[in-house]
Amino acid sequence: MKLAAALFWLLLLIIPARGAGPTLEVALVYPDPTEDSREMTRQLEDGSQETLHVAKTPVVTEFEVESARRGLSANGNAAVDVTLTPAGSKKMLAATAANYGERFAIIVEGDVIIAPFIRGTFSSHFQISGGGMTDQEAEDLARKLDPSQRLLTLPAP
């Protein structure tokens, strides 16, 4: 009986609730609205907002994350270094190769954190930074995204 109860709670923790969105999405940004896009806004550093037309289907989500660790951006600010699974790496490589010069959005818990231009192909590693993320926020996000930490950070049933 205890094993069945433990498996039940484990499944509840692993399988997202219906209607709950992914914690992480990396999705292409279209220059204009399309049937395949959703309108999202991004808060800019000067306090203004930018409207983006983000693909409804992401290139990758947290389910293609192999690991995530708190790190530092090139300018020394808090960041999260993400490594993708082999399947996620293939998707990211194909998307960046086919969309050079376009933008993609990194969406965390429904908010567009950054929307950089694709300046080259990459596959297995990327970094989430910007938005004034604190060290603690970077640590918390890394725990949410890292599969080895995801279950450890959820509240006990």
Describe what is shown at a glance.
With 157 residues, this protein is of the alpha+beta class. It has helices at 2-14, 86-98, 135-145, 147-150, and strands spanning 24-30, 37-43, 49-55, 60-61, 65-72, 78-84, 103-108, 111-114, 125-129.
Terminus-to-terminus distance: 16 Å
**How many separate helices?**
4
Judging from the principal axes of the Cα atoms, what is the shape? globular
Overall pLDDT score = 82
Helix content: 25-40%
Rg, Cα atoms, Å: 17 Å
Judged by helices, strands and strand pairing, the structural class is alpha+beta
The beta-strand count equals 9
Largest sheet: 6 strands, antiparallel
Percent strand equals: 25-35%
| Contiguous uncertain segments of 5+ residues | 1-19, 152-156
Order of helices and strands: HEEEEEEHEEEHH
Structure description:
By secondary structure, the chain is of the alpha+beta class. 26% of the residues lie in helices and 34% in strands. Strands 1, 2, 3, 4, 7 and 8 form a 6-stranded antiparallel beta sheet that branches. Strands 5-6-9 form a 3-stranded antiparallel beta sheet. It is globular. The two termini are 16 Å apart. The relative contact order is 0.19. The N terminus and C terminus are likely disordered.
